[in-house]
Design a protein that fits this description.
This protein has helices at about 35-50, 65-75, 100-115, 135-145, 160-170, 195-210, 225-235, 240-250, 265-270, 280-285, and strands at about 5-10, 10-15, 20, 55, 80-85, 90, 95-100, 120-125, 150-155, 175, 190, 195, 210. By secondary structure, it is an alpha/beta fold. The structure holds NADP nicotinamide-adenine-dinucleotide phosphate (NAP). The site of NADP nicotinamide-adenine-dinucleotide phosphate has 28 residues, from α9.
Length: about 290
């Protein structure tokens, strides 16, 4: 709660530090976790710490992350928002294939409803544009499923500003998630979107008041830089906490969703919400300042 709140789609108020439930599966985001009870405990601890936005996808496991969420938390406490995604198939550890075919998305959504034990998904996100399927066709089917009452709000993932704008012609878009952290800049491409494009997306979402869930907020645990380490030392906190505090300060629409299978890391990440960066500290983390 220390990070304040954001209202997704005009009716879902969430605290501005969420939980990414991708890391509670087996290695390579494949199969069950090594410690089932620990995965359940991490999910329950996140909600006990007032995290009320949980990000997942049918492809995490596959199925495993959504099943664990339902086992740990259903019936969901009031105000807990589960944001899931469809649009990928899996063939093994670390292997992901986009599938934005309408029939795949319809079946994927039904699977998520069943596993999460929900009648409607609060935020359903297209996981990634499928280069083999016209983008409007994939988004169009999410609009159709929203009209059918199976989706409350539609979100996107790994998209450009142009794609967000073309999707918004078909359906209101309440959230976007691209890979974004303090090191994001330049031409490096993640899931088809360059870092520079993502910077434009963050500004666009800020202007349009669209929630932005940065994935990889800790660069999968590997985010480090001299400027982050120096400030972490000065503030006597962990570098990852500075990385999350920077995201919270970067834009009021940003809701970080750090992922972890560790209760200690979860607690550390949530505690970042209480770290307020001064103007000078924020400026010191600007990539332009080294
Ligand atoms: N839309 C997409 O295409 C997409 C892609 C990737 C991820 N996501 C979503 O975004 C969420 C976050 O992304 P992510 O999980 O890839 O990356 P991340 O949050 O940047 O990093 C997670 C990794 O960092 C480690 N970690 C977390 N907190 C830590 C801490 N306090 N100290 C040290 N290490 C820590 C975790 O290991 P431990 O388990 O050991 O803590 C984990 O391996 C995912 O869970 C998922 O919900 C979406």
């Amino acid at each position: 709660m220390n990070a304040g709140t954001f209202t997704i789609g005009a009716d879902l108020q969430v605290n501005r530090l969420g939980f990414g439930a991708m890391r509670i599966t087996g290695p390579g985001i494949w199969g069950p976790p090594a410690e089932h009870a620990n995965a359940l405990a991490v999910l329950r601890r996140s909600v006990a710490l007032d995290v009320n936005l949980i990000d997942t996808a049918d492809s995490y496991g596959p199925d495993v992350s959504e099943e664990l969420i339902a086992e740990a938390l259903h019936p969901y406490p009031g105000g807990v928002v589960i944001a899931t995604k469809g649009g990928h198939t899996r063939s093994g550890p670390d292997r992901w294939t986009p599938n934005g075919q309408p029939e795949h998305l319809r079946a994927a959504l039904d699977g998520s409803l069943r596993r999460l034990k929900l009648e409607r998904i609060d935020v359903y996100q297209l996981h990634r544009p499928d280069p083999k399927v016209p983008f409007e066709e994939s988004v169009g089917v999410l609009a159709e499923l929203q009209r059918a009452g199976k989706i409350r709000h539609v979100g996107l993932s790994s998209v450009s500003v142009a794609q967000i704008e073309s999707a918004r012609k078909l359906v209101p878009i309440v959230s976007v998630q691209n890979r974004f952290n303090n090191a994001t800049r330049g031409g490096a491409v993640f899931n088809g979107v360059s870092d520079d494009e993502t910077l434009a997306v963050v500004d666009y979402c800020t202007r349009e008041n669209i929630a932005f869930f940065p994935w990889g907020p800790l660069a999968a645990g590997k985010l480090s830089s001299d400027r982050i380490s120096a400030l972490a030392l000065r503030r006597n906190v962990a570098p990852h906490q500075i990385a999350l505090a920077w995201l919270l300060r970067r834009s009021p629409v940003i809701i970080p969703i750090p992922g972890t299978a560790s209760i200690a890391h979860l607690e550390q990440n949530v505690a970042s919400a209480a770290i307020e960066l001064s103007d000078d500290e924020f400026a010191s983390l600007d990539v332009a300042n080294g």
